[in-house]
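[Amino acid chain]
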Amino acid sequence: MPIFLARFVSALRARLRGWRAALTVALTVFGTSWIAMALVEPEANGITAPGTYWWWFLITASTVGYGDFFPESVPGRIVGAYVIVGGIATLTILFTELSTHIQTLRSKRLKGMVDVDLSGHIVVLGYLPGRTERIVHQLRVEDGHAVVLCAWDEVAEHPMAGEDGVAFVRGDLGDAATLRRSGVERARTVVVDARDDNEALALAVTVDHLAPDVHLVVALRDMNRCERLRYVSPKVQCVQWHMPNLVADEALDPGITEVYSELMDSSGGGNTYSVTLPPALEGKSFGACQAHFGERFDATVIAVRQDGRTAVSPPWNAPLRAGALLYYLADRRIDVGGLTGDLASGRR
């Protein structure tokens, strides 16, 4: 019987694929063994009873063998061996198919062929070795945001396969079907980091069509093209391509590029200035200095340089020493004489 079963399984797998082969083997062994057991085993044993045989078959085929029912004759034990071999054959087929399925799925994921089932994630469109890894790492450094990296067909496999939380989709990035596979409609942010500005504009149009409410960040080499992107959507945030850190910052904190632009524009409403710590503030805490600048001048102290190093937003209780340099934001430069006079008169 085992030889017959081996040939049967071999012939069956040549004709049937997947789970159907395992099911066919199990049903065939079940039916033939029941008939054989009924012929060779005395009825008094009770194995072949309809309410009992399925249980005995399941326990024997899985090689568990509780021993509550068992054949007593030699022919019955031969049938039992046949059931055991059939069970092993069935399990082998099942495990083989399961392993093949898992390997196929993993291969598809590595090749970017599987749809992404995420929401609230960040989609990065475009891949440039080194640059994209840097952006993705910065996107995930804070809260571990899930990231979907979308690349063109020439990127054959997932370039960041060892990075947890980074999925991969490959295809024509200008095709709506490819972007849907990356879940752009459910994403919180889409970063367009294209190979050139014309491609960036085309991708932005497609993304805006699929997800008009998504936070769209576009890296541009020529910032003058930002006006054209505004025709696509006034909410598009344009970032200088040569500043990948700023691309990640804008993706995580919408609108921060506008803040940076305002700070860097000397004609803006707020500029950065510096002033040496007045003697009257020596030994005071950074918080006391911050409160004085805010209440008296509507200014914000953002950094302090002392002891040879600069600290941005130092602790509130950090002491300030003589010669410290204060950096502050204000709509105009603070008059040092006025600042010293306020402190001398006791005004905060």
